[in-house]
Specification:
The complex is a heterodimer of chains A (288) and B (214). With 288 residues, chain A is mainly α. Chain A has a domain of 201 residues: MetI-like (MetI-like fold), CATH 1.10.3720. Chain A has 12 helices and no strands. In chain A, helix 4 runs antiparallel to helix 10, helix 5 packs across helix 7 and helix 7 crosses helix 9. Chain B has 214 residues and is mainly alpha-helical. Chain B has a single domain, classed as MetI-like fold (Orthogonal Bundle), CATH 1.10.3720. Chain B contains 9 helices and no strands. The radius of gyration of chain B is 21 Å and the shape is flat. The N and C termini of chain B lie far apart (53 Å). The chains are: A mainly alpha (288), B mainly alpha (214). At the A-B interface, helix 1, helix 2, helix 5, helix 6 and helix 9 of A face helix 3, helix 4, helix 6, helix 7 and helix 8 of B.
Chain lengths: 288, 214
Amino acid sequence: MSAPSLDRALFDSPGPRGRRRIRYLSAVTLLAFVAVMALGLQRFAAHGQLAAGKWRPFTQTGYLRFLWAGLRGTLLATGISALLTFPLGTALALARLSHRRPLRYLATGYVELLRGLPLLLVIYAFLLALPTYGINLPILWKLVVPIVMVNAAVVAETLRAGVRALDRGQSEAAGALGLTHWQSLRAVVLPQAIRVVLPSLVAQLVTLVKDSTLGYVVSYPELMTQGNALTVYTHLLIQTFLVIAAVYLAINIAISRLATGLEARLRRPRPGRALRATMLRSAGPPDR
Amino acid sequence: MEIVLSHLGILFSGFGATLELSVIGFVAGGVLGTLLAVCRVVPVAPLRVFGSVYVEVFRNIPLVALLTLVVFGLPDAGVTYSLFDSAALCLTLVAAAYVCEAVRGGINAVPVGQAEAARAIGLSLGQSLRAVILPQALRCMVQPLVNVFIGVALSSSLAAAVGVGELTDHTEQLNLRYAQAIPAFLVAGLLYLAITLSGAAAGARLERRLTVRR
């Protein structure tokens, strides 16, 4: 069922001796992993980091409520960023594909500039530079605006790659039908391009979640900020940040799974609903 | 502007640290990532599992959380590295996950028929890898690897959040001391763009040279 993969074409399937060697190697590597893990745990235990007392706080409602507030902040910042990033990125991609030269140059300049700047620098600029010129945003927006500015450039580039990956025949056919440039983009090119890059766009959500961790630079109460605040009182650094890392991992792995699932679904050769409808129509009325 | 220009030395020393972090992270991450890619294709189950778990974890953990754990958490378990080493270590660990996926993607982009043809004319595994698969795979890896380099260079700024004296950190310090925000951030931005754009240009050049004209 699975697609023929390269490593299967490179090796013969192992004979009895090969299988024995693989079993032997598997056992050795497994033992090595267990040994390394045991050493790490022993090191933690030697410094008392595994003591139950250091982990019990994370089962208490007070701690959990404090971290939950942070998680809510993270989700809020990520959600707002996503809601603004994708439309703005699409607008930028359209501007880059425009026939109007000034618009195209402006969008190209913006995308190239913002893709080459680190987010933290942009956040510091909003945090430190703009207030001296009288522009002082609320805390949430000091985080969200830089995130949107930087990520919209990436989304624009992703969409443009999708448009470029599309067969030229699509826009040529649209032109031959008499659609204007804008009409063909909206009705023919973009819907297909978005379909192609949908997995990458979903994966961009992971970046948005990660970017929201910079909230503690602007003291916006998200998960990292709350974690830092918590450790000031508890000094449970390792435990707190391991718990927080696990939460981030759970969110991001779920999003990544969604993206790979979508990718697998889109790759399956299957006529789309619209195409099937036209095929049915051209085939004439069904028998029944 | 004059104040910033007279303190360019501060920015340039930060620039040096940023460049160093980017190169160390990319090169060490490249080596580790290639090893991981090998782990993910050999027929030894524990190694495969290790490879895929590693990639899953380090592609999805926020770098800030990892940096905080290594810089502030590990000393509690008796493991202390210098700030710069911690940042370099974290960048390497994360870069390796992305390099692994870039390498695997490049190898998988080679049509299976190529490997079958190489086997059919009697090349050994090593020969077919060296003469047939890898040259074609490398060509597809250039662009993803350039993206990894740019990502590492930009992520290295996060080291400022745990107090490593690199470009973003020095820019902030300069701004705190002289309140010359716009020029300071302008120069820092230009320096970052210099790294990322030259990385992209080098990649484009390499890709042109690797292209086969048919």
